[in-house]
């Protein structure tokens, strides 16, 4: 809309056109107020019934809450108005009417359950605290991109329709591809490795991953966004350095650029940017620390995966972001390299927030014959992955990388209870629409 002023920019003494949604109407008899809301905030529009054009006043008062109005008028200082200024209108137009009954109250006076909110995301995102989550998500992604660029990584985009999976056969969504079976990709894993073997050397991707897992938990989605890194001539420790730097950069950027949003979310006072130097515990140390607390019924032994409960106990113990390194080779996928001096232990690592896992990664097996052996050990047919394995015969340097869940990063950063709050239109067992 040409000549439109954001409500936050309306300055006393100016004639402006503002446009937005009716947040609230307050009719006090001779005088009434419309509170108009837009991307930047709210502004009061004053209607004086006896002194203003009758038709204009009626237009303003007849419009239901959440209708879209365009208001021309003069901005005046008004200490009693919520923002200290008000618009004295000269023209009011209903740009888009709203029904009198709404499925969700954007003013937040009436709480809505998460499913109702997700079914009506447009209305839900008219609430400042929900808007703030997605403004912060955008800033987080901007900062992550910038951090990768400063680590010489090039952004790539890889196919999401693939012929084979990598992260375990049961978690694939099959689709029909011109009569052939294909799948939605679970991870850019193989493609990013192929690019680490190219002249791009260091790459990153931010894109969707699809997991047909049955989990219906507050931290699993069936479509998530993964932040992936892969670097040639990197070992697992350098890959961990990059994960630490990217995470810290995201927090720093949000602290620096999203002060208002943090305030809206009630986080301004205790938003802590992580140290940037996360403790690195070996898997064995992690088991020992969990066992020493005596808080689990079971005694963890080598080869056990860490249950959600074990992760929770350990998170409480460590109290900040941390890595678990040197996982048993048997629990990590075929593409993770074992330690040269100990085939039982891998270079695989996880990066944890005290609440949950954020990242997994490791140094990759870059030697062709060992890679083929790894496929076979995992019960995968290397022939199906020939497009990938053959590149390991044409000069594949040592490389390492990781994948980080974008929603989990955002969710833990903002203390959200449910991962569905960190994505606009979540996909889960119950939810395929909107
Ligand atoms: P992994 O399967 O551990 O590793 O995934 C990496 C990170 O992605 C996030 N994530 C999810 N987030 C929400 N819902 C899900 N269903 C979900 N699945 C995964 C988590 C997890 O830590 N190829 C390897 C990465 C690598 O080695 O580079 C991989 O995909 O935060």
From TrEMBL:
HAMAP family: Asp_tRNA_synth_type2 (MF_02075). This is Aspartate--tRNA(Asp/Asn) ligase. ATP binds at residues 211-213, 219-221, 357, 405-408. Belongs to the class-II aminoacyl-tRNA synthetase family. Type 2 subfamily. GO terms for biological process: aspartyl-tRNA aminoacylation. Binds 3 Mg(2+) cations per subunit. The strongest magnesium site (Mg1) is bound to the beta- and gamma-phosphates of ATP and four water molecules complete its coordination sphere. Aspartyl-tRNA synthetase with relaxed tRNA specificity since it is able to aspartylate not only its cognate tRNA(Asp) but also tRNA(Asn). Reaction proceeds in two steps: L-aspartate is first activated by ATP to form Asp-AMP and then transferred to the acceptor end of tRNA(Asp/Asn). The lineage of its organism: Archaea, Methanobacteriati, Methanobacteriota, Stenosarchaea group, Halobacteria. InterPro entries: Aa-tRNA-synt_II, aa-tRNA-synth_II, aa-tRNA-synth_II/BPL/LPL, Asp-tRNA_synthase_2, Asp/Asn-tRNA-synth_IIb, NA-bd_OB-fold, NA-bd_OB_tRNA. It comes from the Archaea. The record marks 82 as: Important for tRNA non-discrimination. Its cofactor is Mg(2+). One of its GO terms (cellular component) is cytosol. One of its GO terms (molecular function) is ATP binding. Residues 189-192 are annotated as: Aspartate. Its EC number is 6.1.1.23. It comes from Halobaculum gomorrense. Pfam families: tRNA-synt_2 (PF00152), tRNA_anti-codon (PF01336). Residues 99-434 form the Aminoacyl-transfer RNA synthetases class-II family profile domain. Homodimer.
């Amino acid at each position: 809309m040409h000549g439109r002023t954001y409500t936050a920019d309306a300055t006393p003494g100016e004639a402006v056109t503002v446009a937005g949604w009716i947040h609230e109407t307050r009719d006090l008899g001779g005088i009434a107020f419309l509170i108009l809301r837009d991307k930047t905030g709210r502004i009061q529009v004053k209607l004086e019934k006896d002194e203003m054009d009758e038709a204009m006043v009626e237009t303003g008062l007849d419009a239901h809450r959440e209708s879209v109005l365009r208001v021309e008028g003069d901005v005046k200082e008004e200490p009693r108005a919520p923002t200290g200024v008000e618009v004295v209108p000269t023209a009011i137009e209903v740009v888009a009417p709203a029904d009198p009954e709404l499925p969700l109250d954007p003013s937040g006076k009436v709480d809505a359950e998460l499913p109702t909110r997700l079914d009506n995301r447009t209305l839900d995102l008219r609430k400042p605290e929900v808007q703030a989550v997605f403004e912060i998500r955008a800033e987080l992604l901007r900062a992550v991109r910038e951090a990768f660029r400063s680590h010489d990584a090039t952004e790539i985009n890889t196919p999401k329709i693939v012929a084979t999976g990598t992260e375990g056969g049961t978690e694939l969504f099959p689709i029909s591809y011109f009569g052939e079976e294909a799948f939605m990709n679970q991870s850019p894993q193989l493609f990013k490795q192929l690019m680490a073997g190219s002249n791009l050397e260091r790459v990153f991707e931010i894109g969707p991953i699809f997991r047909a897992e049955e989990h219906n938990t507050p931290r699993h989605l069936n479509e998530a966004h993964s932040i992936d890194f892969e670097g040639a001539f990197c070992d697992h420790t350098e890959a961990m350095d990059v994960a630490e730097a990217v995470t810290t950069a995201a927090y720093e950027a949000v602290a620096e650029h999203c002060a208002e949003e943090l305030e809206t979310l009630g986080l301004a006072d205790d938003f802590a940017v992580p140290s940037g130097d996360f403790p690195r515990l070996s898997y064995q140390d992690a088991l020992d620390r969990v066992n020493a607390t005596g808080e689990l019924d079971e005694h963890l032994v080598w080869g056990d995966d860490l249950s959600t409960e074990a992760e929770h106990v350990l998170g409480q113990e460590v109290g900040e972001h941390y890595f678990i390194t040197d996982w048993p080779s048997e629990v990590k996928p075929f593409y993770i390299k074992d330690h040269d001096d100990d085939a039982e232990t891998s270079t695989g690592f996880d990066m944890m927030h005290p609440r949950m896992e954020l990242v997994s990664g490791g140094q990759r097996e870059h030697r062709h014959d060992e890679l083929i052996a790894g496929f076979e050990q995992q019960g995968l047919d290397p022939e199906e992955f020939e497009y990938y394995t053959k590149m390991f015969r044409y000069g594949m340097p040592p490389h390492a990388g990781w994948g980080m869940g974008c929603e989990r990063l955002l969710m833990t950063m903002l203390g959200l209870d449910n991962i569905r709050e960190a994505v606009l239109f979540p996909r889960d067992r119950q939810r395929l629409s909107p």
